[in-house]
Amino acid sequence: MKLGGREKGIIIGGGVAIVLLLFFQFGLSPALARMKTLDRLVAQKERDVQEMLGLRETYLARKAVIEEVNRSLSRRGQEFAIFSFLEDLANKSGVKGNIMYMKPALSTSGELYRESSVEMKLEGITLQALIQYLYEIERAPQLLRVRRLHIKPRAANPDMLDVTFQVSTFYLLERSS
């Protein structure tokens, strides 16, 4: 069987078309799909890197705060007595006569810190005196904080308050290496 020039051209054209179709199906199409997938992954990874940089900044900021707290607690030392400090501060603020009681609250310990708390009750105190005393507690360099606060006006004289609150501080635990 002899093929004419036209038939040879059709067969060669068909062969080229089949080769091109196979190249597209098994070579170019998967490569294009892979490039599209990689482009999407690159965009995702760039977002992930930006998120990691943000997390790094947050971590470094928090680490700096923790280091500053540790330095403050180290300077203050283990001999700091929250009871005595609050009593002295009450005396300086002029509210010592309003103290009904001061009692230790439950202390908790973590891996690095021990929290110590004192519950205080003040009776017949003015709002201005209370604000000043609480302000002095919060601004003290000994890292004290008011955790709970319950204020109740007196029935006989609403300008006078009965207040119960809890003040806490932290102590560094000694590390055993």
List the helices and strands and how they pair.
Blueprint: H1 5-76, H2 82-93, E1 99-109, E2 113-126, H3 127-139, E3 145-153, E4 160-172
Antiparallel strand pairs: 1-2, 2-4, 3-4
Which stretches of 5+ consecutive residues score pLDDT under 50?
none
Can you tell me the CATH topology of the largest domain?
Answer: Alpha-Beta Plaits
The helical percent reads 40-55%
Distance between the termini: 94 Å
Quaternary organization: single chain
Percentage of residues in DSSP E strands: 25-35%
- CATH homologous superfamily placement of the largest domain: Ribosomal protein S6/Translation elongation factor EF1B
The CATH C-level name of the largest domain is: Alpha Beta
Radius of gyration: 37 Å
Backbone structural class: alpha+beta
The H-and-E topology, N to C, reads as HHEEHEE
Q: What is the second-level CATH architecture of the largest domain? A: 2-Layer Sandwich
- Tell me the domain tally: 2
Strand order of the largest sheet: 1-2-4-3
- Main beta-sheet annotation: 4 strands, antiparallel
Number of helices: 3
Number of strands: 4
Mean pLDDT: 88
Shape: rod-shaped
